[in-house]
Write a structure and sequence with these properties.
Radius of gyration of chain B: 16 Å
Helix content of chain A: 25-40%
Number of helices of chain A: 8
Number of strands of chain B: 7
Shape of chain B: globular
Oligomer: heterodimer
Strand order of the largest sheet of chain B: 2-3-4-1-5-6-7
Largest interface: A-B, 40 and 40 residues
Order of helices and strands of chain A: EHEEEEHEEHEHEHHEHH
Number of helices of chain B: 6
Order of helices and strands of chain B: EHEEEHEHEHEHH
Number of strands of chain A: 10
Distance between the termini of chain B: 13 Å
Chain lengths: ~240, ~190
């Protein structure tokens, strides 16, 4: 008997749980912006993925695609059993239930932290060189992000460079900040550091363009001194 | 180059932090503002939708005071207004800790992208139940010298915070104002 339906009635997590003990191909039509998706499943493990007729062999890209479609509530599905797992592709070995659950956790976390999350364009830098203990998933993210953070990068740019979903990067950056591993960059401080000859440890050449500085020596007081003098005069009681 | 070209100071922060009041208390001209009736419940009848503009002349040099809109949907204005600014003052109401994350988001967005010396002002210090500047500094993860208590309705208090901001500008680069001259030309011919 065929297993079929619509994602408006069956969330993907439920469909996948239902198929945990089965072996076959889960066909999707018009899920998100994908016209056709085939998930080749063998007892809860995603062994192959065919996107619009093209086989996807990159595990990270496959995980990102699963995260992307996890909450999509439109499109149809149909499951075709196969008698033997060897009839399926064997490019991937992804625990699909775990990925979808992680997505559910990510959504919960994002909703929990969203009011405290920084703007995606805010740049962050490393705050410490000391190693701290990180949970496994955060450690994996950290391994990918550390070098980019050393130079200073925004959450939005980091998501693009690592090909990860923005929400996932936002939540991970929030956690890294909370444990003091990263901090928001201060452009003023970066420029002051470069002027003083202090560069990020692995940066050989300054990568930041310093604000123009007037270099002409002047005997007369600087503009800011004049402004301060005038302000202090206003502030004095007459 | 003329020493009388204008400079600008930007005042930012969440809705109800006292930005318009601050500009009004310093400006020597009637403040040009773009207040409109609020279309959502933000705790007051009107809110700034584009900017406030005031003028303070110091030793013959016009200082343009720009207050930014406080609502998130006007956040595209922050970066535009802060380009070429002499300093940035981010105001936050000390009796509204629920607005601190928003204020921090504004501060970090701007200061991580634009090299502008900045100061955080904690307003409503006259109220009995209010966060003190050093506690707000902890939340913003800033050194205490970058956070000051302000009563935005008081001209003296507003002047003192402007003095503090300019001291920070001076500490950053004594010739910073000179480096900006000519880069900001609003209102000049």
């Amino acid at each position: 008997m065929a297993i079929f339906g619509n994602l408006t009635e069956f969330p993907l997590l439920e469909v996948v749980s239902m198929l945990e003990r089965r072996c076959g191909v889960l066909h999707f039509r018009n899920v998100g912006h994908f016209q056709s998706l085939d998930l080749q499943l063998n007892h809860g493990t995603l062994q192959g993925l065919v996107v619009n007729g093209q086989v996807m062999r990159d595990g990270i890209a496959a995980k990102n695609l699963l995260i992307e479609i996890a909450n999509v509530r439109s499109g149809t599905f149909e499951f075709q059993r196969v008698s033997d797992g060897s009839m399926l592709l064997n490019d991937l070995a992804i625990n699909i239930g775990e990925i979808l659950l992680r997505r559910a956790t990510l959504d919960d976390e994002w909703n929990c932290y969203k009011d405290s999350l920084p703007e995606p364009e805010t740049r962050f830098v490393l705050a410490t060189q000391e190693l701290v203990w990180l949970e496994e998933e955060l450690q994996q993210f950290w391994n990918q992000a550390e070098l980019l953070l050393e130079y200073g990068i925004s959450t939005k740019d980091l998501a693009q460079r690592l090909n990860l979903e923005l929400r996932l990067v936002q939540v991970n950056m929030y956690k890294l900040r909370a444990i003091g591993v990263i901090r928001p960059a201060r452009k003023v401080q970066e420029i002051a550091d470069i002027r003083a000859g202090h560069f990020p440890s692995r940066v050989a050449i300054p990568v930041l363009k310093a604000a123009p500085v007037a270099t002409k020596t002047q005997n007369k007081p600087s503009l800011v001194s004049r402004l301060l003098g005038a302000l202090r005069l206003i502030g004095k009681p007459s | 180059m003329s020493q009388h070209q204008p400079l600008k100071i930007v005042i930012s922060g969440p809705v109800g932090a006292g930005k318009t009041t601050f500009v009004q208390s310093l400006s020597e001209i009637p403040v040009v503002n773009t207040d409109e009736l609020s279309t959502e419940d933000i705790g007051k009848a009107t809110t700034t939708v584009a900017l406030d503009f005031g003028l303070l002349t110091l030793d013959g040099i016009p200082i343009h005071l720009f207050g930014t809109p406080g609502q998130d949907r006007f956040d595209f204005m922050w970066e535009v207004l802060c380009e070429g600014a002499l300093g940035l003052l981010v105001l936050v109401a000390g009796d509204k800790p629920q607005d601190f994350p928003h204020a921090r988001r504004i501060l970090e967005f701007i200061t991580s992208r634009i090299p502008v010396p900045f100061l955080v002002g904690v307003t409503r210090q006259d109220l009995p139940r209010v966060w003190e500047p050093e506690d707000v500094a902890e939340y913003f993860d800033l050194t205490p010298d970058l956070v000051i208590g302000i009563n935005a309705t008081s001209t003296t208090s507003s002047l003192l915070s402007t003095v503090r901001l300019l001291e920070l500008v001076q500490a950053y680069d004594p010739l910073y104002a000179e480096s900006l001259q000519g880069k900001y030309t609003f209102g000049t011919v």
